Structures are given as structure tokens and as C-alpha cells.
Fold this protein.
Amino acid sequence: MKIKDVIQYLEQLAPPVYQASYDNAGLIVGDAQQEAKGVLCCLDSTEAIVEEAADKGCNLIVAHHPIVFKGLKSLTGRNYVERVVIQAIKHDIAIYAIHTNLDSVYHKGVNEKICEKIGLSHTQILAPTQSLKKLSVYVPPTHSEQVRQALFEAGAGTLGQEQGLSYASLGVGTKEGQTGAEVKLEVFFPLAIQAQVLAALKKGADGLELPYELLPVENRNPLVGSGMLGQLDQPMKEEAFLKHLKKAMEANIIRHTALRGNKIETVAVCGGAGGFLLGAAKARKADIFITADYKYHEFFDADGQIIIADIGHFESEQFTIELLEAVISKKFNNFAVYSTEVVTNPVHYL
């Protein structure tokens, strides 16, 4: 089992196409063709993390945050980023980051894990993105069913919890002056699987050259986007919920706006810096918005309509480590998978 096999699996769960434009997720250091000897999961790649990986016999670090965001013009060890890269190369350890693409997926994503820890149900993406495409293909009736099934097997025809969705219309096609019956098949699919959908189309066509068109659609993909919205099984008083939140997320402190005298039932969350989603949280009638990295003046934006609860960046995403260990160890049993024992939170509280 090679490092590239681990990466390919992770990128099926959180396709790189879903990462933000500023991000640098992916393989940052190392050779993907090496045999995977062990994996260490962490939030941040630091010098202590690299040492821990070496001590545990791991040659792959899977981190949430990329150690390199901007291009490095030198590797002299003048800052911690350069030192980590140098140290990883010396130990022959690969570093892979799975960042905003993991933030953006519903299943096995950062925000689903937060909802699980808090105890939310009926969860859904808070701000779905436009990441759907539509395939229309013109097929002889004799081949329409096998093409349809090939597209389904590739992942097309899925919207939210619904699977096997397609539309077929029977019409008349022309070719070199001749006419004949033709079926127009239409399916939606996520942008991330376009290559495999087209490969499935070719396979299902069984040697026929089938005309098709691909179109971007404005519909929002319910399984991809930012943040998450969920419900408490039983409404809670605001102060009681904040205490529950602090315990569930193992937060040292919660900075929050004024309580509103209402019960908490609908909860919006976003791991890391999620202030850009406040408008979406208000629009979805959330009683509280849980995130991190709020600045003083930004708290005023609650404007008495919602409670903003800043639990800290590390605190909001720390259980991503647990998530990564679980998904990797469940898939692979050829090597050991560890959660780091190093706390990389750079923020300390007195």
C-alpha cells in the first residue's frame, strides 16, 4: 500500500476541487510512490509533530491545516514553516493537508463532526455551493438502460439523499438524412466526479459515439458547501446550552454576544474562521452561530438577532484529528494509524 493510495481515498471523501482558491491542500512534502508505513493525523504540522511521526514509525502526516500556504523562496530554517519542511525531508516523511475541501463536504467533514459532538440532528449544509453539472446524452433506445446504469454506478443521478435520479425523453434523431428513435438522458452530478462520469458514459456506450453536452447549473449542491445547520432534540436554555457546548467541544473559554432570553433549538456551526457565514445563519433562523476567530467589532453584527459563540479555532476543529484517524484506519489495515498526542494549539489561556 502506497502513500498515493491513502491520498486517493481521502480525495474521494473530500475532492480537491472543493478547496477554496486561497488554500494549499494536497501533498506538500514527500513522495506519493513510497510504501505507507504509518500515518499520524493532526491539525497542524509542527516540528513536534514531525518528531512524533518519526518516533512512531510513520512516514505520512495527514494534517488539516497546510504547513505551506505561500511559495517558499528558500529553505534555510529561518522560520517554523521552513524548519518543518526541512525536518520532514530529513526523516523521509510526507506531509499531506486536507483543509477547506474537508470543511466543504457534508459526509465525514469537519462540520459534521462538530454537529456530532454537540448532539445535533437533521443536519444540512448551511450555505450550499453551486458545484453541480448536468449531462445530456443522446442514446439509441437499445443502449439507454445500460448507459443510465453506468452513469449511476459512477455517482451521477444523486441529489442530497436521493439516488438513481434521471430524466429520459423519447424523440427523433437524424443522421445523414436518416431518422430514427433516440432517447435523451439527463442526469445531474457533482463537479468533482466529472472525469469518472464521462468515463462511465464511454463504457456504457459500448463503442458507440454518443453526442452529449455538459452544462453548469445554478442549483445548489446540498452535500457541498460551508458550515452546517442542525437541530437539538430538545430545546435548551441559552446558558445551559453554552455550558453544554463548552464541555462537548472541550473549549477553555467561549466568547459570545448577549443572550436573547430565548431557547436554543436551531444551531449553525462552522469550524475555524466562519464569520463570513453569519448572514446565512441569520437567514436560516439559527438561534446561535458557533465558530471561531471573531474580532471585537464583528460581534456587533449579531445585532440582537442571533447569538455568536466563538469557541476558538483549535477548539472548533480539534476533533478533525479523531475524524481523520477513524476514516483512514477503517479503510486501511496494512499500517498503523495514530492521532497525535501533541497539542498544537498556539493559544494559551490564563
In short: The chain has eleven helices and 15 strands. The mean pLDDT is 95.
